[in-house]
Amino acid sequence: MSVIINIMAFILVFIFIVVVHEFGHYLFAVLFGVKVHEFAIGFGPAIYRRKGKKTDFRINVFPLGGYVRLKGEDPEEQEDPDSLYGVAAWKRFLIVLAGPVFSILAGYLLFVLIISGWGYTPIIIDKVIPGSPAQQAGLQPDDIVLKLNGKHVFDTTDMTSIIRKGKPLTLEVLRNAERITVKVTPALTQKEYFVYLKDVKGDIGGKVESVNNIPFERYMAKYQKEYVTIKSEVGELKGLLDNVSVLPERYAIGIYYGQFSNVFAKDNELFKKGDKLLKVEDMEVQSTNDLMDVVTALGLKPDELYIQFSGDKVTQVLRPLPEMTKVLYESNGTQKEVIVSKEKLLSVLSVPGVLEVKAPKLKPRGLEAISVSVARSNRLALYIWKTLPGVFLGRNLQEVSGPVGVVQVIGQAVQFGLETILTVVAIITINLGIFNLFPLPALDGGRIIFALAEMISRRKINRNVENLIHTVGFFLLLGFLFFMTFVDISRLFTR
């Protein structure tokens, strides 16, 4: 049943997106006197048809797309004054451009509706590292970041990329309903190592002297999976070095971003909605960072360790929790304690959306809602424009989805409600508009290039040559669609 709901939701969303896009083409074609033979949603035989005075409106059996068929698109049709190639090149340029523009504008308008109606989730500071530039500047946990260097910021990736430039920053934060301006200069950090060991014996802490009698950082430059002996100020640790992740030296201000809180957002097999997680064994739970440490510790087996190093100093050691784990939580103002298997607790904490989002929703009013919506949409559009070209070269594949992936995303959005559905629709329709602007054959962008070439050269381009190029491009795009479908399916089997 859920699969059917996902598919139906996908079809309805796709129909909306297609209608908006094709209506742009249709409207400008009519405006410039170009006859529209058909306005179709889907491909193949018609399941619904309504004949207008000049246009045949139809819904076809395969709803994965749509089109407007304009007079003159067929090479055998004459270039009459009411045909696509019978009007001036600048008019043809605008007719083709209107589809992507309408798609992008629809996404922008949806974001205005979403942010005006529901607000948006801002960046929130989860934890400030003692002695860091952030602490020295006066930043505090639970500060909400509104602007960075005078511009709205919505994405932690964006904020991090700006911080890593190492230049002085001006943050506008919201603290206890008061807007505060904070100036902070990033500092260069040491390399960080996140080390996972198995078959562990011994102890570790403080400064590390050596790994297999080699200075720590020199060894880590060429680490390999092997049994190691790590000597430190606290003691000696032996075990199988199974995995190492390295964060290079980078500019940072010393904050962790908040993602989810320790309050449960919905009922589950262990806790009720509104219950607050306080402690798991001796691990206090107050922040997103604490919760991530708990999840990591729950996943460790009895002889495993997860160790974090800053340079050659141990900054954190996560040890496995017992098979039956003691949990302290608050329910209806009363502290309670329960002992559960760590597998069950890990299962509950791993459910998407089980915990409340840490940052409160911000709901700007009036003109500010429009300016925030436009800024949010601009950020998304710029990200898409930078990311999509790499997909054709085999890069950024993890950041995009084909038809199967889109069905899944829309299906998940349905479970979260109207706001999430509209957000997904806004993202997809902006994606579609920008994708169609790429100057590739068979896309609107390719047709725009031909119209521009004719406008500049003031000479007609051979329509047979143009149609051949678009035909070849169509089959290449079809191949790309099949490739992305394969990528989507392969993801299903690797999860």
Automatic annotation (TrEMBL):
<dbReference type="InterPro" id="IPR001478">
    <property type="entry name" value="PDZ"/>
</dbReference>
<keyword id="KW-0482">Metalloprotease</keyword>
<feature type="transmembrane region" description="Helical">
    <location>
        <begin position="416"/>
        <end position="438"/>
    </location>
</feature>
<feature type="transmembrane region" description="Helical">
    <location>
        <begin position="468"/>
        <end position="487"/>
    </location>
</feature>
<dbReference type="InterPro" id="IPR036034">
    <property type="entry name" value="PDZ_sf"/>
</dbReference>
<dbReference type="InterPro" id="IPR041489">
    <property type="entry name" value="PDZ_6"/>
</dbReference>
<dbReference type="GO" id="GO:0016020">
    <property type="term" value="C:membrane"/>
</dbReference>
<feature type="transmembrane region" description="Helical">
    <location>
        <begin position="27"/>
        <end position="48"/>
    </location>
</feature>
<keyword id="KW-0645">Protease</keyword>
<feature type="transmembrane region" description="Helical">
    <location>
        <begin position="93"/>
        <end position="120"/>
    </location>
</feature>
<dbReference type="Pfam" id="PF17820">
    <property type="entry name" value="PDZ_6"/>
</dbReference>
<feature type="transmembrane region" description="Helical">
    <location>
        <begin position="5"/>
        <end position="21"/>
    </location>
</feature>
<keyword id="KW-1133">Transmembrane helix</keyword>
<dbReference type="GO" id="GO:0004222">
    <property type="term" value="F:metalloendopeptidase activity"/>
</dbReference>
<dbReference type="Pfam" id="PF02163">
    <property type="entry name" value="Peptidase_M50"/>
</dbReference>
<keyword id="KW-0862">Zinc</keyword>
<keyword id="KW-0812">Transmembrane</keyword>
<keyword id="KW-0378">Hydrolase</keyword>
<protein>
    <submittedName>
        <fullName>Site-2 protease family protein</fullName>
    </submittedName>
</protein>
<feature type="domain" description="PDZ">
    <location>
        <begin position="123"/>
        <end position="177"/>
    </location>
</feature>
<dbReference type="InterPro" id="IPR008915">
    <property type="entry name" value="Peptidase_M50"/>
</dbReference>
<comment type="similarity">
    <text>Belongs to the peptidase M50B family.</text>
</comment>
<keyword id="KW-0472">Membrane</keyword>
<dbReference type="GO" id="GO:0006508">
    <property type="term" value="P:proteolysis"/>
</dbReference>
<dbReference type="InterPro" id="IPR004387">
    <property type="entry name" value="Pept_M50_Zn"/>
</dbReference>
